[in-house]
Specification:
By secondary structure, the chain is of the alpha/beta class. It has helices spanning 10-21, 33-42, 56-62, 77-89, 121-134, 208-218, and strands spanning 2-6, 25-30, 48-50, 69-72, 96-100, 117-120, 139-144, 149-155, 176-183, 186-188, 201-207. It folds into two domains: 2-123, Rossmann fold; 130-218, 2-Layer Sandwich (Alpha-Beta Plaits). The strands form two sheets. A six-stranded parallel sheet has the order 3-2-1-4-5-6, with helices on both faces. It has a five-stranded antiparallel sheet with strand order 7-8-11-9-10, covered by helices on one side.
């Protein structure tokens, strides 16, 4: 996948580095000299294009017409909205992702400005904090299908309801699968007759409603 990122602050740099590690084709556009100095230290020089997104020649040189996704990752919401509209309407980019810096501007990031996915960092952080508080010792490792499902991890304690129970006897949520059990001796592939032991590290995939039920099932009852 070819991803064009505009905006070279820490978020843009980390996103570019991650996507490059995942073997995607990435181009990052930035015009600020101080930001460019940091960027060149963290991602390959051939992935960096110097210039402003309002310079259409720079966008062309970076390959915007071939991009599968454009990420508007600048610190100014008006710039991110303008770029999303340009990418869709002028260059025919099939997918745009817009970063929201000020939560009060979130309502603007919709199909009116051709934003396919709006990333409100403040809201994301608030949800993550709320989730970690509400789920106790359960940790969310990965979000799937735009947050519809989660890969979660929890360690079975001596006071947990699930301790000593076979998987087939667990009152698991309907949308839940035990994916793996990690023990000191190695990983155990879960079967119906597999009994959960104290100290087991359980990896499960579940939906948002199932997370709360799993947290109660695996939490210490004391």
């Amino acid at each position: 996948m070819f991803v064009l990122i505009i905006g070279g602050d820490s978020t843009g740099i980390q996103l570019a580095a991650f996507l490059i590690d995942q073997r995607h084709t990435v181009r990052l556009i930035e015009h600020r000299p101080e930001a460019l100095a940091r960027i060149h230290l963290q991602i390959p020089t051939e992935a960096v294009y110097e210039g402003r997104f309002t310079d259409l020649d720079v966008l062309e040189q970076a390959g915007i017409r071939r991009a599968d996704t454009v990420v508007a990752c600048m610190s100014n919401d008006a710039d991110n909205l303008l770029l999303s509209a340009l990418a869709h309407n002028l260059f025919g980019v099939p997918r745009t992702i817009g970063r929201i810096n000020d939560p009060t501007h979130a309502w603007l990031f919709d199909e009116t400005f051709q934003v396919d996915v709006a990333l409100n960092e403040a809201t994301i952080l608030a949800h993550l904090i709320e989730e970690e508080i509400s789920l106790g010792d359960m940790m969310t490792l990965l979000k799937l299908r735009r947050g519809e499902y989660s890969l979660v991890e929890v360690v079975i304690t001596s006071g947990a309801k699930a301790a000593g129970m076979a998987i087939k006897d667990l009152p698991l949520p309907e949308q839940c699968v035990i994916a793996a059990i990690i023990r000191p001796g190695g990983m155990v592939l879960p079967r119906g007759d597999t009994t959960l032991e104290v100290g087991d590290e359980v990896l499960a995939i579940t939906d948002s409603q199932g997370e709360a039920q799993l947290a109660e099932l695996f939490s210490d009852e004391s």
